[in-house]
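User: I've been trying to design a sequence by hand for this structure and keep getting stuck. Would you show me what you'd pick, starting by listing the structure so we're on the same page?

Assistant: Good idea, let's start from the same input. This is the structure you sent:
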């Protein structure tokens, strides 16, 4: 198998096309990248900025260059010795009239060739929830008319610029212009039902992706559907143009293991395959999946064990709770978020599950009240601590069965008073232990249940709880544990050892198109745990300075102090390292980004406003407050803010280099998200999907010229970080066996500052690389760009297999002889140290 040495993720569309990517190939080569990792390239909706709303899985999107452009990119990569990994989307396609398959289903209903390609409940008409109000209301307003479709010339139900085709033989072309009654009757004869977007959570007839009604679930579990949706993908793999595949949202599939086995069989043993899979606390990737591993969200979570000051978490939590005004019970907060999602946002999916369970119960002669069964099922869904189980008609895997019964045990011993017999009944369905007479409904229940727990977890945690609780935004990340825990180097080392044993070729990422903030914003905000009192003092002072912009509304001030805590933290994380308060253009650019973030943060929290029910007064008040923060006229605050965050910026830059160095050396394949080889202070999407300045990136990467560690611009421009990426990526290509199979050895540190260093080694077949890097360096006396070249009173103890060697530091070129320890007292305190063995002494 062609395992990458280092991947580089590029987001196509929104300014990036194949020819622009071709021009980047020499840069990627110099950077040490082995594989370009492309976002979806297949034809998507015309206004798509990301490509996950695919309309034609067997066409390369003309908007980004089409097949000819793709071929030029493929040839350029091959000529440079680079590979290509494609992001594929088997779970869903665009529910758009631009999608010919979906359009055919709209027109022909169950008679369409593609009626079974999508996950549609054909016991009712296909629901199309794209009206601004009910069908009756928009009809009454004259917004629904009968007009020729400009594309086909055939009569269609027109809603503004959208033309819904009519089913054959349902309209007489010679008929006069119909009145509203005739239009309503005509609509009734269609295989679809136009409805308000607000009714989608309750009445949708097709499986959607999370809450997005514009993305319809695809039934790739059907062999014919798999073949139809993977024809071009497999052609590109078999032709040698594509070396690897990244499977988007694998947990959304009916049977992920069966899908991956089919994909592996069709793609071949040499194809590198990873899956987008978020692992919960203690969860491991199923060992029998034929993939190299995940796309790496768990690696982001592991890094927090290195960069969080665990001893201060309780202090930070108490300070935050003082702002909130009461203790924060994260378990109850999580339960509240999940309860809202089950009963409101996923009401339709939940109701379908309840009805299936009720039908099976009646067939087994149970006489439970429907509301009681509904309550029990709701608690089971809420209690799930992971995205899903992987049961089939053959039952649950042993680990999943154990997890399920553990969950049920916790529910029955709680204060919820859920009937144990109903929970056991639901467990029997999930474990495929029901009578043959109800096996069909049981299979459907199991599949639907498992396809719901993932979206329920994601939307409750990542897109609700993480926008409600703001103690430290760095901890609110995709893949992170929503409940407070301990942080320790030991835990990190244990996780890396497991990673080496279970998925050594998985991607190790620190930023993606879906992360809540860029990796360097996260690295900076981790430092709040090192100085919690100082941070709280800053927030209190800043909020007082801007108090005149707080607006009192009937439901309270906007923003409240808790909202201000979030705003100042987000602003501190996103503040460019080179931005000065006097730079009005820089402030304007940051404000444009910040406004989009604030609006999304308020709506995702779903407390005083939401996407479905916006509170304009509240949103405008908070957005105005945020705008004032970055106004050039607010110089008193801006200068204070800038001065106060300087130590956080400096410590964050050290964290940035440490996490980069770890990613490049630890088990896994380092993945560089576009532009993140330098500093990435992005906010949540769409901010994190902006096109980087590739010209500037190329300018910074000067072949053979080492940046000076005492040069402030080398830190703040990201050039030092880029240097680490380039040096270590090239080294990985030279030592593939060392990084794929080499042991992971945690190294013990001693001395006055032992806690301020993380050290480990990789070792295989007589070769070794030793790593020592700074951590928890917020104290200004330990952080500076023009400091004396003196280190810290710390030694790294070396086992016999690593001792008594002459080594070379890969980053500086400096040679050093190690005995049974590595003495850091002569090493600059802010510099990571990566020693490769030159010879055994």
């Amino acid at each position: 198998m062609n395992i990458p040495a280092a991947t580089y993720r590029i987001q196509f569309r929104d300014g990036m096309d194949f020819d622009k990517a071709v021009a980047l190939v020499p840069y990627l080569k110099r950077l040490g990248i082995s594989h370009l990792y492309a976002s979806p390239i297949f034809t998507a909706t015309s206004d798509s900025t990301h490509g996950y709303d695919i309309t034609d899985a067997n066409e390369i999107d003309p908007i980004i260059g089409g097949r000819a452009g793709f071929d030029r990119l493929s040839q350029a990569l091959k000529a440079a010795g680079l590979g290509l990994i494609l992001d594929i989307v088997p779970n869903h396609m665009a529910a758009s009239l631009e999608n010919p398959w979906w359009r055919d289903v709209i027109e022909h209903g169950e008679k369409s060739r593609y009626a079974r390609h999508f996950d549609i409940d054909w016991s009712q008409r296909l629901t199309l929830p794209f009206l601004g109000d009910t069908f009756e209301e928009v009809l009454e307003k004259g917004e629904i008319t009968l007009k020729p479709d400009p594309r086909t010339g055939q009569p269609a139900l027109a809603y503004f610029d959208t033309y819904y085709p009519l089913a054959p033989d349902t309209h007489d072309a010679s008929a006069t212009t119909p009145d509203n009654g005739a239009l309503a009757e005509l609509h009734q004869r269609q295989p679809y039902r136009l409805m308000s977007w607000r009714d989608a959570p309750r009445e949708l007839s097709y499986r959607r992706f999370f809450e997005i009604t514009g993305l319809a679930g695809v039934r790739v579990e059907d062999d014919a559907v798999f073949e139809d949706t993977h024809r071009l993908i497999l052609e590109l793999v078999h032709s040698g143009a594509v070396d690897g595949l990244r499977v988007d949202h694998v947990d959304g599939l009916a049977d992920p293991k069966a899908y991956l086995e089919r994909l592996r069989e069709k793609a071949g043993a040499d194809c590198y395959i990873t899956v987008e899979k978020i692992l919960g606390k203690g969860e491991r990737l199923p060992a029998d999946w034929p993939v190299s591993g995940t796309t790496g969200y768990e690696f982001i979570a592991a890094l927090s064990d290195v960069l969080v000051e665990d001893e201060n978490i309780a202090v930070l939590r108490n300070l935050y709770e003082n702002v909130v005004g009461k203790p924060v019970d994260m378990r109850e907060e999580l339960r509240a978020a999940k309860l809202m999602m089950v009963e409101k946002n996923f009401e339709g999916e939940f109701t379908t599950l309840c009805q299936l369970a009720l039908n099976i119960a009646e067939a087994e002669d149970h006489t439970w009240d429907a509301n009681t069964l509904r309550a029990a099922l709701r608690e089971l869904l809420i209690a799930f601590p992971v995205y899903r189980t992987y049961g089939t008609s053959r039952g649950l895997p042993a680990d999943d069965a154990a997890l399920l019964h553990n969950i049920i045990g916790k529910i029955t011993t709680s204060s919820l008073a859920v009937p144990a017999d109903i929970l056991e009944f639901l467990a029997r369905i999930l474990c495929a232990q029901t009578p043959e007479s109800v096996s069909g409904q049981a299979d459907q229940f199991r599949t639907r249940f498992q396809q719901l727990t993932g979206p329920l977890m994601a939307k409750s945690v990542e897109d609700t709880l993480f926008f409600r609780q703001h103690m430290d935004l760095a901890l609110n990340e995709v893949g992170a544990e929503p409940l407070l825990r301990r942080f320790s180097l030991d835990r990190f080392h244990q996780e890396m050892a497991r990673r080496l044993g279970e998925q050594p070729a998985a991607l190790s990422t620190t930023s993606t198109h879906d992360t809540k903030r860029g990796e360097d914003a996260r690295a900076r905000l981790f430092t709040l745990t090192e100085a919690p009192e100082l941070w709280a003092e800053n927030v209190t002072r800043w909020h007082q300075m801007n108090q005149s912009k707080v607006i009192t509304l009937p439901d309270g001030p906007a923003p409240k102090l808790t909202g201000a805590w979030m705003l100042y933290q987000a602003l501190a994380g996103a503040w460019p390292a080179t931005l000065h308060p006097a730079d009005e253009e820089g402030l304007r650019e940051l404000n444009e980004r910040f406004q989009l973030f604030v609006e999304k943060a308020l709506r995702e929290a779903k407390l005083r406003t939401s996407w479905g029910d916006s509170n304009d007064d509240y949103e405008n008040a908070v957005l105005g407050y945020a705008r004032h923060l970055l106004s050039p006229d607010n110089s008193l605050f801006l200068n204070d803010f800038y001065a106060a965050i300087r130590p956080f910026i400096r410590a964050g830059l050290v964290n940035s280099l440490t996490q980069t160095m770890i990613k490049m050396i630890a088990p896994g394949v380092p993945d560089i998200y576009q532009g993140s080889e330098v500093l990435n202070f992005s906010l949540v999407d769409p901010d994190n999907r902006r096109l980087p300045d590739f010209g500037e990136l190329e300018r910074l990467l000067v072949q053979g010229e080492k940046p000076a560690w005492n040069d402030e611009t080398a830190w703040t421009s990201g050039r030092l970080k880029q240097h680490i990426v380039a040096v270590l990526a090239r080294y990985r290509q030279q030592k593939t066996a060392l990084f794929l199979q080499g042991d992971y050895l945690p190294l013990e540190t001693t001395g006055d500052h032992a806690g301020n260093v993380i050290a480990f080694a990789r070792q295989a077949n007589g070769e070794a690389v030793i790593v020592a890097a700074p951590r928890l360096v917020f104290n200004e006396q330990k952080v500076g760009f023009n400091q004396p070249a003196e280190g810290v009173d710390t030694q790294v103890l070396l086992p016999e297999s690593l001792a008594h060697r002459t080594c070379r530091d890969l980053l500086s070129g400096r040679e050093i002889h190690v005995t049974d320890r590595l003495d850091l007292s002569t090493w600059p305190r802010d510099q990571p140290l990566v020693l490769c063995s030159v010879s055994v002494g």
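That's my pick for every position. To get oriented when you compare it with your attempt: The two ends are 36 Å apart (CA to CA). The mean pLDDT is 95.
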